[in-house]
Write a structure and sequence with these properties.
Layout: E1 2-5, H1 40-43, H2 45-54, H3 62-71, H4 76-96, H5 107-112, H6 116-128, E2 133-137, H7 143-150, E3 154-159, H8 162-172, E4 178-182, H9 185-192, E5 201-205, E6 210-213, E7 216-219, H10 230-238, E8 243-247, E9 261-267, E10 270-278, E11 288-294, E12 302-308, E13 318-320, E14 333-337, H11 339-343, H12 347-354, E15 359-360, E16 368-370, E17 379-389, H13 392-402, E18 404-412, H14 418-426, E19 435-444, E20 447-455
Parallel strand pairs: 2-3, 2-5, 3-4, 5-8, 9-11, 18-19
Antiparallel strand pairs: 1-13, 6-7, 8-10, 9-10, 11-12, 14-16, 14-17, 15-16, 17-20, 19-20
Protein name: SAM-dependent methyltransferase
Keywords: Methyltransferase, Transferase
Organism: Micrococcus flavus
Length: about 450
């Protein structure tokens, strides 16, 4: 048995490369061009009425739809704007649900929009912190602001991009408790939030993390290249404000401020964000947290959370199976931690929560192993049926001899992609008929293995 330890850094997000000044080379979000989405025609009553009357256009031929609308007498610019919005609504339906049919969207704003179920959790936390007013700096499409005002919080939403601000104003128009201000977040904050007598207002930020240009968008990794930068966020917290800031889930732990609670959130297994909480919204006994939201439950969304009071050094050490223990793995349960647990570096904390017999598969991998384990919302279970070497020829023979027709592949610590292995093992990626098999590829010690497993949880 390998000695007691925590997962090594290879199972964690990599820190971005830095230049001599300590900043990651690359674009800065503040240099973005304005959003090119044309909103003018759908801000007019006739355009909005036509858009709402169209409904879901998924599966329809856009050229035929455009020809029909123009034949009905609608001006070309109105038809173009309406079809753009209809297409964005169709694209955003999976993320935004039925709310999408009441929203105006922009191409770039949709990419960073908060899912309603998560925005509601943000609003609930601020409400529980005792604040009555929220300033949303860089509000985007206003979806977080929409959740705030629905929770009974007076909301001021500030957005510098005039097109995006117009979309936010339209999305919030039915809520008198919300007000949209077109302006620069830093300048607005300097004028309105620096005074100590305005500390009753909580501040919410969702900084831009991409630089938009006419040729597309470049992802920004350096927190100081966000717009606003992370140092601006911490300066607001230092003034005494209650602050929440939504960041990408890959934010390096080295960049986390010491006086913040960091909470990573996944929705139906997809890690969507990391939020830093300061002031009254911060839980003093929590430094890192992993929150899993399951929207598939028939009785409504369910949440499960794992927390730690300290940084990475506070996570417990856990034994590892290691290469010498692979022969005894058949029949045991392999547990795949939720992505939020992995991003929060809480893998060994989850192991302890699951029971005393839970071990790491390898010190470098975020997989856990147990003789048995009950269902847990922060980990998906698989029963190990066989342990194979990761040898393509041998796996091709195994698939042929056991009648594999469909193959799911998961992997950690190996370079081959699931798509490539599936193609090489099955010949074309999938065979008609045959059984459904699942392989987990992992480097344990110095050897690469393919674990044949049976999922024990729905969606695993």
């Amino acid at each position: 048995m390998a000695r007691s330890q925590r997962p090594a850094r290879s199972s964690r997000p990599r820190r971005p490369r830095t230049d001599g000044a300590g900043r990651a080379p690359g674009p800065r979000a503040a240099d973005s061009a304005t959003d090119p989405t044309c909103l003018g025609p759908v801000l007019e009553p006739e355009g909005r009425a036509l858009l709402d009357a169209l409904g879901d256009v998924s599966g329809q031929d856009p050229l035929a739809l455009s020809s029909r609308l123009r034949a009905e007498g609608h001006p070309p610019e109105r038809v173009a704007a309406v079809l753009t919005q209809a297409g964005l609504r169709a694209k955003g339906r999976a993320r935004l649900g039925d709310d999408v049919d009441r929203l105006l969207l922009t191409r770039d704003g949709l990419e960073q929009a908060t899912r309603p179920v998560v925005a509601d959790l943000h609003a609930a936390r601020l409400h529980a912190a005792g604040v009555g007013r929220v300033v949303d700096l860089g509000c985007g499409l206003g979806l977080d602001a929409l959740a705030f005002v629905r929770a009974g919080l007076e909301t001021v939403a500030v957005e510098r991009d005039p097109t995006v601000a117009a979309a936010a104003a339209a999305n919030l128009a039915a809520h008198p408790g919300a007000r949209v201000v077109e302006g620069d977040a830093l300048a607005w904050a300097a004028e309105h939030l620096a005074a100590a007598d305005d500390l009753g207002a909580a501040v919410w930020l969702d900084p831009a993390r991409r630089r938009l240009s006419g040729s597309g968008a470049d992802r920004v990794f350096d927190p100081e290249a966000f717009s606003p930068p992370l140092s601006f966020v911490t300066s607001l917290a230092a003034l005494g404000h209650t602050v929440g800031v939504k960041l990408g889930p890959g934010i390096p732990h080295e960049a986390l401020p010491a006086d913040a609670e960091a909470q990573w959130t996944s929705v139906d297994g997809d890690v969507t964000e990391a939020v830093l909480w300061f002031g009254a919204a911060r839980r003093l006994d929590v430094r890192r947290a992993a929150l899993a939201v399951d929207t598939r439950a028939p009785d409504g969304p369910r949440t499960a959370e794992l927390t730690s009071p300290g940084g990475e050094e506070a996570s417990p050490a856990v034994d590892a199976v290691g290469e010498e223990g692979m022969a005894g793995l058949v029949g045991q349960v392999l547990i795949e931690p939720d992505g939020a647990v992995i991003r929060a570096h809480l893998v060994t904390d989850l192991a302890v929560a699951l029971g005393p017999d839970v071990r790491l598969l390898d010190p470098h991998l975020a997989y856990l192993v147990a003789p048995d384990a009950p269902a847990h919302p922060l980990g998906r279970r698989h029963r190990v049926l066989a342990v194979h070497d990761l040898d393509v020829k041998a796996l091709r023979r195994w698939a042929r001899e056991t009648g594999v027709g469909r193959l799911d592949v998961k992997k950690r610590g190996v370079s081959i992609t699931p798509e490539e292995l599936r193609r090489r093992v099955l010949g074309g990626g999938r065979r008609s008929g045959g059984r459904h098999a699942t392989l987990v590829l992992a480097r344990v010690g110095d050897r690469r293995h393919a674990l044949e497993v049976e999922p024990l949880d729905a969606g695993a």
